[in-house]
Amino acid sequence: MKLTLSALLITGGLAVTSLASATTATFQLCSTAGCRTGGSQTVTSTYAQTKYPIVFANGMGGFSSIAGIYNYWYGIPENLTANGASVFVSQEASFNSSEVRGEQLLNQVQQILAITGAAKVNLIGHSHGGPSVRYVAGLLPTKVASVTAVAGVTFGSPVADTVQSLVNSPVGPILAPVISAGVNAFFTIVGVSSGQYYSQDSLAGLSSLTSKGSAAFNAKFPQGVPTNQCDQGAAVANGIRYYSWGGTAVWTNVLNPADYLVGATSLLIPGASDGLVPRCSSHLGQVIRDDYYQNHFDEVNQVAGLISPFTTSPVTLFRLQANRLKTAGL
Q1: Where does the record locate the signal sequence feature (predicted)?
Q2: What is the largest CA-CA distance in the chain?
Q3: Number of CB atoms found within 10 A of residue 114's CB
Q4: Which residues lie across from 36 on neighbouring strands?
Q5: Kind of pairing between the strands at 236-237 and 240-247
Q6: Which pLDDT value is given to residue 21?
Q7: Residue 207 is part of which domain span?
């Protein structure tokens, strides 16, 4: 078969164009300072070519791309771009309240709408990025086509509850300011290295992810939130489609240092979890699946793609979601 044929080749269930007709596209890294090119990809498929741009929102402790080299969404924007999607990786403060981070994302979404001329965006948030995308959808519903929460902390995390109880203990006023100052300083450096200069507030971020903080946020932004934690929420609210998925594994790859962190934090969570977020707490809107063999870091292909070799690749899950949005006309 000659590469000059313009016919489509069907490979692994994906429609892939011939190399002769391939084009080049870039995904964008954004912050309040604007958007810059994150990297160029050869586009050989329209499988993930959604009607509206896809915008990613990072979780707690996250970033967009450190020094333009290491991406929080490891390998995911590149794959979606290669499959035809228009992708923007936003940057929120690594640590701050759900409302502050949501407002930061809102500002970037407005920039992206202006840059692209698109009528709407598809929002995808991981972990604390789940409340961020819900905040934007709540305040700017006519400009959001869909919201997808990946291990979003809809109902909070017992890990945050435990740490908050330590902050509120007699030793809290002594230790909390010292520890939080160190965390804030470190992630200020991480933020600067990824091109943003947000102030960090780890205590505000912690409070937002407690059960109490999440309940208060849900009262303000109830769209897609299940009435009962382990149920599904409304698939469509205010004309916006809501989706979610999550994992229930902890130890998935002994070579991944993040496994040891979630291995410890998982001990604070009764029942199934991804090591940081309980299974049912990840539910929002249409629950695609809540028991992937992935932990909280695996869900965004961290660290450096060191996930279990026996599970579905998170890159594949995001590509499937993009195709799901495309099929829905989004």
Answers
A1: 1-22
A2: 74
A3: 9
A4: 29
A5: antiparallel
A6: 57
A7: 9-327
Q: Is residue 3 part of a domain?
A: no
- Report CA torsion sign: 141, 292, 210, 126: negative
CATH code of 310's domain: 3.40.50.1820
CB atoms within 10 A of CB 13: 7
**Does any domain span residue 126?**
yes
Cα dihedral 277, 89, 261, 99 sign: negative
Phi, psi values for residue 38, rounded to 5°? -95, -20
Q: Which of 106-115, 116-125, 168-177 has the lowest mean pLDDT?
A: 168-177
Across 285-313, average pLDDT: 96
d(CA 175, CA 2) in angstroms, rounded, equals 68
Which CA distances in Å does 152 have to 79, 167, 168, 215, 281?
22, 23, 25, 14, 7
R_g of the chain computed on alpha carbons: 19
Write out the two tokens for 207.
Answer: 């409070």
Domain count, the chain: 1
Q: What 3-state class would DSSP assign to 102?
A: helix
Over the stretch 204-247, which tens digit does the pLDDT of each residue have? 999 999 999 999 999 999 999 999 999 999 999 999 999 999 99
Cβ atoms of residues 268 and 211 within 8 Å: no
pTM: 0.91
CB 74 within 8 Å of CB 126:
no
pLDDT at 303 over 70: yes
266: in domain = yes
What are φ and ψ of residue 187, in 5° steps? -80, -15
- For the annotated catalytic residues, the residue numbers are 127, 274, 296
Residue 4 lies in a domain: no
Instruction: Find out whether 64 and 55 touch, Cβ atoms under 8 Å.
Output: no
